[in-house]
Amino acid sequence: MLNLKPPYYAVIFSSQRTEGDHGYEEMADEMVKLASEQAGFLGVESSRDENGFGITISYCIMVCQLLLIHLNIRSIANL
């Protein structure tokens, strides 16, 4: 667990995996890479259960940049 001092924003993303990877793992890695390169990025935590439901929380000082990255990834992945 990250030990962060306020103020900061948390961008929360949930997903339900289906059979097969379909490039998900690569896209998730790319999203974290892009987010970590942004000014104000503080860290990321992720968890997934045995049924494929997952939650990723990205912490930052500037929420708009992470939201734009997420929307860009979604459009590339056609989700």
Spatial order of strands in the largest sheet: 1-3-2
State the total count of DSSP E strands: 3
Determine Rg (CA atoms, Å).
Answer: 13 Å
Describe the global form: globular
- Tell me the β content: 25-35%
Quaternary structure annotation: single chain
N-to-C order of helices and strands: EHEEH
Head-to-tail CA distance between termini: 29 Å
Q: Major beta sheet, specifics?
A: 3 strands, antiparallel
The tally of helices reads 2
Mean pLDDT, all residues = 79
Structural class: alpha+beta
- Percent helix among the residues? 25-40%
Sequence stretches where pLDDT stays below 50 over 5 or more residues: none
InterPro entries: Dimeric_a/b-barrel, Jasmonate_Hydroxylase-like
Keywords: Membrane, Transmembrane, Transmembrane helix
Question: What is the element layout, followed by pairings?
Answer:
Layout: E1 9-16, H1 24-36, E2 41-48, E3 53-60, H2 63-77
Antiparallel strand pairs: 1-3, 2-3
What does this structure look like?
It is a single chain. With 79 residues, the protein is of the alpha+beta class. It has helices spanning 24-36, 63-77, and strands at 9-16, 41-48, 53-60. 35% of the residues lie in helices and 30% in strands. It has a three-stranded antiparallel β-sheet with strand order 1-3-2, covered by helices on one side. Strand 2 (41-48) and strand 3 (53-60) form a beta hairpin. The longest helix is centred in the last third of the chain and has 15 residues, at 63-77. The chain is globular, with a radius of gyration of 13 Å. The mean pLDDT is 79. Keywords: Membrane, Transmembrane, Transmembrane helix.
